Amino acid sequence: MIWTLGAIPVTLLVIGTPIFVLLLTGAILTFVSFMTVSPVAIHQIMFGGLENYALLAIPFFIFAGELMGAAGIADRLIVWVLALIGRMPGSLGVATVGASTLIGAISGASVATVAAVGKSIYPGLIRDGYGQRFSSGLVSSSGAIDILIPPSIAMILYGASAEQSIPKLFAAGVLPGLLMASMMAAFVIVRALQMNIPRSGKFDLRLFLSTSWRAAPALFMPAFVLGIIYFGYSSPTEAGGFACLYAIIVGRYIYRSMSWQDVLDAAARSAMLTAQILVIVATAALFSWILTISGIPRALTEWLQALQLSQWGFLMAINIILLIVGCFLDPTSAILVLTPLLIPLVKTVGVDPIHFGIIMCTNVAIGMFTPPFGLNIFVARTVLGVPLETIYRGVLPFAVVQITALLIITYWPDLSLILTRAI
Amino acid sequence: MTIEDKAASPSEAGAGLASFALSAVRALLGVVLIGLVLLNVINAVARAIGEVVIGVDEVLVFGMIWMVMIGMMLVTADRSHIALEILTARVGPRAVNILSIITHAVMAASCGYAAVQSFGFVQRIVASGQTSMALGMPMVIPHSALLVGFAGTAVIAAMIVVSDVRQLSHSRGGRA
Question: Is the pLDDT of residue A360 over 90?
């Protein structure tokens, strides 16, 4: 069974087989070779994996993010952040972090944020003297904050996979996300002072008020989406639908920057992105079912108990494993494949599954921009036109900053859990 | 330029037709997603004003499953499934071609097998006449999505294998 569930899927992964195919192939080979259950169950388990109302939030939030990009909402947020930050040292660098955080609070798609922020701010960063390496590293790594700031697709996937409350996960991500953004901003300010970056402009109240007026509908969107969830008016899935409708109204009738054709194009792109993710959900459900039936999570739990690791040591080991996995696998696959394996272990050592969800999301967020296969790196290369080697070197200091934030998030559970107690 | 040059060859016409069909299906999926969003919002608003619309959740989930399965075929045709490009980014075009043949052959076989099992399950559902809990919708409708999705993906993957093998043999012939 180690061949069908381990060696063959890993070999297929290395040669570039789509993730859903390697999960499906491993599961089918195990069914055919070792199991007495009728293979018709393959259909039933995959259907069961998809027949989950909570998963509907994924296409809705992807669509909301695509609409936001099409309507130019991201650009207005960036202009507003720049007007707010004014004369602060490293203002444009801090604006990159701030804009990524704000856009993350609306879209939840890290890659889209890198593209939007990169296109708008990168030329200014170069003009101010931040240099290609620092600027490309900053843009690539700031996009990762999105995964921690609700609404987050990674959190929805974790919640569905670990059977945890998605509103609680959203609440748990707020403070860790802000911590990460603050640490990134502090690092940018220090580096800007070291590099003698000139202070660009000054705080202009009139400019700030006019940009605030123009950005108000965009700024209200995260408050609206999270507000209707936490005040009990809607589930995260319904809030995703409202977010789409809100983005269409703002883009079509308030900003007048989006045609109906743009809406349809955004919907078609979102449907395709959804298919890419949810087909992995279906096959990961099958693969996880086989792992569970085969007793692998139980064996791992027993092995862990035999090691007598402390909670501290366990979390450190898990972080190292997740960081390595994150360098190679995309967040969707990493969460869907590893969550069913890790949840029994997490419960055994007494870690809160909501807290663990935030730890896991932080790890995969860092994986979004760590070499060699962080998706944000490839987006930045395409959007910014910077050589891959330059981005690889540029992201390293930011990886150190975010790993430091990860350690704080890991060993300070209250940071994640304090807001969940209010729900 | 001769008239023969101007007229599209059968293969070009076929490619154009396929491209049009793909664009049409892609737009259809966009319409489905917009429909799901509207239905979801109507459902939430109706509940807020005390009206209960029965079965909307079922339509939303089953609609999503169909959207994913049709989308899976389009993503396969676009060769844009999520995959690790650890080898393909480092080898030459010929090796990429060979790897593509292998991965799509595996895809065709696995999805073909899944489609056969789906067919078996759908037959059982038809025989039992199972319906959904809220709407009483025949469950053959949502379950058929997986049959269509996996069968279609298997066929598309097989077509990609054939196309890649041809390309490989042409490049070999060209070099000879």
Answer: yes
Residue type at A139 in one-letter notation: V
DSSP secondary structure string, B83-118?
Answer: B--TTTTTS-HHHHHHHHHHHHHHHHHHHHHHHHHH
Cβ of A279 within 8 Å of Cβ of B36? The answer is no
Q: Which of A97, A83, A258, A332 is nearest to A192 (CA)?
A: A97
Residue A341 lies in a domain: yes
B105 touches A: beta carbon within 8 Å: no
Residue A189 lies in a domain: yes
Question: What phi-psi label fits residue A51: left (phi over 0), alpha (psi between -120 and 50 degrees) or beta?
Answer: beta
Choose, out of A42, A60, A245, A262, the residue to mutate when testing the contact with B (most B CBs < 10 Å): A42
CB spacing of A332 vs B82 below 8 angstroms: yes
Query: So what's the ipTM on this one?
Result: 0.90
Q: Is residue B111 part of a domain?
A: yes
Q: Is residue A110 part of a domain?
A: yes
Please report residues of A whose CB lies closer than 8 A to that of B124: 40
Residue B40 inside a domain? The answer is yes
| β-bridge partners, B138 | B131
User: With contact defined as beta carbons under 8 Å apart, do A101 and A181 qualify?
Assistant: yes
Contact A16 B87 (CB under 8 A): yes
B5 within some domain: no
pTM of the predicted protein model: 0.84
Q: Taking a C-beta distance cutoff of 8 angstroms, is the pair A212, A77 a contact?
A: no
pLDDT tens by residue, B141-172 = 999 999 999 999 999 999 999 999 999 888 77
Domains identified in chain A, total number: 1
Cβ-in-10-Å burial (0-12, 13-18, 19+) of B54 comes to exposed
Q: Rounded to a whole number, what is the distance in Å from the CA of A342 to chain B's nearest CA? A: 22
B152 CB within 8 Å of a chain A CB: no
For the stretch A48-66, pLDDT in tens is: 999 988 889 889 988 988 8
Burial of B176 (0-12, 13-18, 19+ CB in 10 A): exposed
Half-sphere exposure of B151 (CA within 13 A, CB side): 12
- The domain in which residue A362 lies consists of 52-281+294-422
CB of A416 closer than 8 Å to CB of A159: no
Residue A35 lies in a domain: no
Domain that holds residue B118: 10-175
Residue B94: C-alpha distances to residues A290, A313, B106, B167, B169 (Å): 36, 47, 19, 9, 10
Residue B40, chain A, CB below 8 Å: the answer is yes
- Residues in chain B within 8 Å Cβ distance of A157: none
Distance of residue A40 Cα from the nearest chain B Cα, in angstroms: 5
For residue B99, give the chain A residue with the closest CA: A15
Residue B77 lies in a domain: yes
Whether omega for the bond prior to residue A372 falls within 30 degrees of 0, making it cis, is yes
Angle at the Cα of A297 from the Cα atoms of A296 and A303, rounded to 5 degrees? 90
